């Protein structure tokens, strides 16, 4: 007898109890200090952690604790006073739980910002009030827009160093909002802060009475966030085929994986891609228990009516909502490797649990961050470049638009020689309001698969 699930695990209050967010900004804008202030003032720091920070600060000749040390854990980070790797921190307040990714500010570590923001529902972009919006600010805004992060907070930091002047904040907020809006960012909230002094981080500032909006923590606690992916296109990338062939289960054949999006039900007709074969779900096993329905992000095993040739990397989808398969994928990519990406280069494309051989067929354009113009036919993408790429695959692949599904619309380009990640790709249109460049006509004679 199977159990019937009538509601998802994210229904009700639990849908707003967890927020994943990332911080970004230029070098020395104060990201780690802001994170440290959030942890300290929200009483999320253990006594021994604070004692260790105080001890390290005294050894460096500082009279007050350097709260940035709460996140900068690598020795090189502490010695140089910078953030190098993504630092994940977990904390909670009575109103919400948080998973925070503190990302580096150096241009050469932009790839880490892509990693930290790829699963975030909100990004905090810091700006030094003395410097205003700089190129790295625009780059981080572009990445947040490309990754479809629904909420962006502009934290204008170091307001204490500009005498808490409202016109300085207003000018920066206006410039950034205009730029991010043009990128298609749906929601932008600007907050003037001093992470070092604690102004408008957790507690309202007594020196900026001209600002009547929320503090950073108040906004993080109240911003509406939906984790419900059950209404999205149902997708199950197969991770492994389970065939125990034991006396208790002589004929058991199950297809296991984590549901990337949507909901699957017993009795539903499904299609296996890229083969296109159809069958019916006869059973769903969840943690060894049969259920009638399962939803993202549960890890399940599907039992099917027919013995089809299914292996790791295949995608199980509802027959009435199946994506098209294609050997050409056009996407916007963030190039994260030191070596360039060039037209004609052989790569591997990793999409969910499937990895296929591919060739870089075309690089139609590279984004110019200053004015958001497209530099046509650059021929290559260098480290930290953002551009449009078309790749020809050795075999058909079912890739959703990234706008529809961040899980099944994303992929990685990998160097087949040493496994280095070259680029992170988002299939379909680039920005929310920007149409994708039309791909050039295919030249089939140039490809050997």
Please give a quick description of this structure.
The chain has helices spanning 31-41, 47-59, 75-80, 110-117, 135-146, 166-183, 216-222, and strands spanning 18-25, 87-93, 96-102, 122-128, 151-157, 188-192, 236-237, 240-242, 254-258, 263-265, 269-273, 277-286, 289-291, 293-295, 299-304, 315-318, 325-335, 341-342, 346-351, 354-368, 373-376, 380-381, 386-398, 410-414, 421-427. With 449 residues, the chain is an alpha+beta fold. Strands 7, 8, 9, 11, 12, 13, 15 and 16 form an eight-stranded antiparallel beta sheet that branches.
Write structural notes for this entry.
The chain is α+β, with helices and mostly antiparallel strands. It is built from seven helices and 25 strands. It has helices at 31-41, 47-59, 75-80, 110-117, 135-146, 166-183, 216-222; strands at 18-25, 87-93, 96-102, 122-128, 151-157, 188-192, 236-237, 240-242, 254-258, 263-265, 269-273, 277-286, 289-291, 293-295, 299-304, 315-318, 325-335, 341-342, 346-351, 354-368, 373-376, 380-381, 386-398, 410-414, 421-427. Strand 4, helix 5 and strand 5 (151-157) form a beta-alpha-beta unit. Helix 5 (135-146) crosses helix 6. It is globular, with a radius of gyration of 24 Å. The model is unreliable at 1-16, 73-84 and 434-449 (pLDDT under 50).
Number of helices: 7
- Helix proportion of residues, in percent? 10-25%
Number of E-type strands: 25
**Poorly predicted regions:** 1-16, 73-84, 434-449
Mean pLDDT figure? 83
Largest sheet: 8 strands, antiparallel
Q: Distance between termini?
A: 49 Å
Tell me which oligomeric state these chains represent. Answer: single chain
Our Rg estimate from Cα atoms comes to 24 Å
Judged by helices, strands and strand pairing, the structural class is alpha+beta
Global morphology: globular
DSSP strand (E) fraction? 25-35%
């Amino acid at each position: 007898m199977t159990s019937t699930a009538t509601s998802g695990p994210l229904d009700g209050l639990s849908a707003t109890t967890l927020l994943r967010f990332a911080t970004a900004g230029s070098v020395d804008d104060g990201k780690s200090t802001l994170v440290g202030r959030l942890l300290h003032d929200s009483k999320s720091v253990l006594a021994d952690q604070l004692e260790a920070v105080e001890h390290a600060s005294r050894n460096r000749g500082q009279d007050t604790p350097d709260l940035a040390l709460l996140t900068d854990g690598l020795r090189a980070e502490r010695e140089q006073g910078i953030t190098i790797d993504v630092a994940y921190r977990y904390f909670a307040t009575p109103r919400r739980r948080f998973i925070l990714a503190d990302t580096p500010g150096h241009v050469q570590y932009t790839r880490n910002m892509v990693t930290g923001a790829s699963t975030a529902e909100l990004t905090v972009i810091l700006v030094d009030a003395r410097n205003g919006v700089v190129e790295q600010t625009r780059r981080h805004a572009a990445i947040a827009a490309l990754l479809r992060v629904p909420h962006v907070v502009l934290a204008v930091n170091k307001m204490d160093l500009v005498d808490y002047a409202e016109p300085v904040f207003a000018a920066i907020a206006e410039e950034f909002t205009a730029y991010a809006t043009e990128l298609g960012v749906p929601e932008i909230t600007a907050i003037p802060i001093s992470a070092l002094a604690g102004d408008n981080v957790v507690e309202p500032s007594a020196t900026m009475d001209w600002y009547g909006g929320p503090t950073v923590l108040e906004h993080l606690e109240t911003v509406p966030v939906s984790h419900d992916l059950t209404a999205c296109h149902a997708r199950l990338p197969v991770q492994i085929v389970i065939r125990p062939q034991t006396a208790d289960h002589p004929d058991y054949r199950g297809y296991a994986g984590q549901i990337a999006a949507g909901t699957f039900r017993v009795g539903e007709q499904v299609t296996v891609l890229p083969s296109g074969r159809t069958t019916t779900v006869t059973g769903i096993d969840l943690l060894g228990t049969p259920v009638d329905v399962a939803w993202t992000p549960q890890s399940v095993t599907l039992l099917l009516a027919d013995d089809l040739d299914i292996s790791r990397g295949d995608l199980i989808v509802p027959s009435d909502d199946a994506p098209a398969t294609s050997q050409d994928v056009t996407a916007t990519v963030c190039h994260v490797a030191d070596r360039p990406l060039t037209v004609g280069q052989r790569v591997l494309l990793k999409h969910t649990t499937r990895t296929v051989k591919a060739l870089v067929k075309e690089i139609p354009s590279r984004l110019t961050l200053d004015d958001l113009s497209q530099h046509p036919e650059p021929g290559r993408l260098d480290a930290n470049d953002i551009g449009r790429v078309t790749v020809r695959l050795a075999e058909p692949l079912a890739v959703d638009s990234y706008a529809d599904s961040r899980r099944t619309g994303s992929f990685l380009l990998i160097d087949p020689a040493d496994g280095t990640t070259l680029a992170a790709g988002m299939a379909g249109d680039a920005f929310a309001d920007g149409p994708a460049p039309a791909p050039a006509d295919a030249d089939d004679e140039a490809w050997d698969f």
